[in-house]
Write a structure and sequence with these properties.
By secondary structure, this protein is an alpha+beta fold. The protein contains two helices and 19 strands. Strand 1 (70-75) and strand 2 form a beta hairpin. The chain is rod-shaped and about 185 Å long.
């Protein structure tokens, strides 16, 4: 009887120990599941945070290459300088100077496209420009500009019943134009001239009261203009006839004659108002010699209109 009770008690103890082991493993499995669940939740949470992160601008320490800004410098006809700048990164400020003079700073407000207009100094000058972006990157540009404000010099001289136009320039001339009154403008293109800094032309003066306008422009677009009021007259007319052994000439003008200069067989003679008085007609004769005789007559009116007549005649004495 006692043996049966002992065996039964031993079996009961074994059953209790088995339940403890099972309970222990059950608790371990539950704890392991809790750990796995915690790691999964943390992983999901971390991914959500990473999705919300906003990429920050480059601080220049990465390998990303930022292209330099595009700088275009343009000189205008009125001697202004336009600075056009385009950048992929916001621009902080510009620094510029002419030659080695003190620099000027233009502050910007994070723009990526800028247009600034500044004056260009007279003469030959070098612009030094620096563009600094918001990351502190600096791009430099230098360019030379020339402004010549020396204008061509126009001269007008009356030569008889003609006008001599002369233009002198320190810089090569581009073109010359001249016009009488309201007539069509005439143009001289200096590209066809060998000496492009000097120009001369003699033109006739139309009859009556006239206005002549001259414009000279050099290759730097410096322009000079000059006008003159002048009266054009008809030159005196000279007629020569042979009378016996003499050559007789008569000078007739629309206005009074100022001088008559004639050269006969190499000798020159001059007559003026002291000789023939205030008149528009002068008559004179010279005696020919045996053989060829040469006569040249130059008459000038009160308005300096000049006429030249030449005559030759072979004389044989009878």
């Amino acid at each position: 009887m006692n043996q049966i009770l002992y065996v039964q008690e031993k079996q009961n103890n074994r059953s209790l120990n088995t339940k403890k082991v099972v309970l222990f493993f059950a608790i371990c499995i539950i704890l392991f599941g809790v750990v796995l669940l915690g790691e999964g939740i943390y992983y999901i949470y971390q991914n959500k945070i990473n999705e919300k992160v906003v990429p920050q601008p480059s601080d220049g320490n990465t390998n990303t290459q930022i292209p330099p800004p595009n700088i275009v410098l343009t000189q205008t006809e009125d001697n202004k300088l336009i600075m056009n700048i385009q950048s992929t990164v916001a621009i902080s400020h510009l620094i510029y100077s002419w030659n080695n003079e003190s620099a000027q700073t233009i502050e910007e407000t994070g723009k990526t496209t800028i247009e600034e207009i500044i004056d260009i100094p007279i003469g030959e000058n070098v612009l030094n420009l620096s563009v600094i972006d918001s990351n502190g990157n600096e791009t430099k540009e230098s360019k030379s500009f020339v402004i010549d404000l020396t204008k061509p010099v126009i001269g007008l001289d009356k030569v008889g019943n003609n006008i001599k136009i002369s233009v002198v320039s320190e810089t090569e001339l581009s073109y010359i134009t001249y016009r009488w009154n309201l007539e069509e403008e005439k143009r001289e293109d200096m590209s066809t001239y060998e000496d492009k800094k000097n120009f001369e032309k003699i033109i006739g003066i139309p009859k009556g009261q006239n206005t002549l306008k001259i414009i000279a422009v050099d290759i730097n677009q410096n322009e000079s203009e000059k006008s003159i009021e002048i009266k054009g007259v008809t030159r005196a007319k000279t007629n020569v006839v042979k009378v016996d052994n003499c050559l007789e000439f008569t000078v007739v003008g629309e206005e009074n004659i100022k001088t008559v200069e004639f050269t006969f067989n190499g000798k020159t003679y001059v007559m003026n108002t002291d000789t023939f008085g205030e008149t528009n007609t002068v008559h004179y004769k010279v005696q020919m010699v045996e053989g060829m005789n040469y006569l040249k007559i130059v008459s000038t009116t009160q308005s300096d209109a000049v006429d030249t007549t030449t005559w030759k005649y072979e004389y044989k004495a009878q």
